[in-house]
Amino acid sequence: MSFFRRKAHTPQAVARLARHDDRDAVTRLLQSADRRYLTSAHAEVPDLLAADPSSVIERDGRIVGVAGFGWRASPVVWLRTLLLHSDLEVIPALRDLSAALYPVLRADGITLAAVTVDDWNDPWLRGPLGYLGYHPVVDVVGYEKRRMDRPSAGNQTVTIRTARPADLEGLLALDAACFPLPSIKGPELMRLALATSPCFVLAEFAREPVGYAFVTEHHDGRLLHLVRIAVAPPYQGRAVGVRLLAEVVDFAAARRVDFLTLNTQADNYGAQ
């Protein structure tokens, strides 16, 4: 009898692209996986894997590993879902799941795969990612606000209005002008934000879009997260961002939220 636990990553474990009929097996793995990397609610994962480029590791008719990339903004794609059974070794599993997906992503014009690593997944994910060729690009710091008061009203010459689906192309161009790779937002994420954000505001000067901001809602509305605040380079330093932030704070105050949070790059000293 062997006293060493056998790993599931054997020749019988095969990596392949996900199929529609994997849905139930993925749902079961979602409940049992010891290692989870998720960027959405549990209930949304099966639908994401149907829409996003995704791969699975199958062994003896069971799904024991899943990876899905989404939020495509060519040439960038983001890891959105990773589920690994406890018996899988992380590095071989990541390698095999990625090998099944990379040809699909390359055919879609993707040349950069990005992953957000935080305190929850750092212990088991950062090392294997580095071993497989991923390298740090940017460090992010988080802030939270509990008192919903305006420090400043910001620029009063710009017009603020709610963003609409018809603004999509202008928002994408504005975002690309404001942020480097891999931080740009693509049409997939921007459309979702326009459709679901409770507060998506656009700043205009002479009817030209010069900035925007949007939030997501969490914990039954007790927390708002400021996902993005962007100002066109020619208008930076003119308190347009301050005005956008003031609008978001007013919205949070009207909603009586407990927290307003945001993240920014560690080297973005102007924003901090």
UniProtKB/TrEMBL annotation:
Molecular functions (GO terms): acyltransferase activity, transferring groups other than amino-acyl groups
Entries under InterPro entries matching the protein: Acyl_CoA_acyltransferase, GNAT_dom
Domain of life: Bacteria
Residue ranges of every copy of the N-acetyltransferase domain listed in the record: 13-153, 158-272
Pfam families: Acetyltransf_1
CDD domains from the UniProt entry: NAT_SF
The name this protein goes by in its record: N-acetyltransferase domain-containing protein
Organism, scientific name: uncultured Chloroflexia bacterium
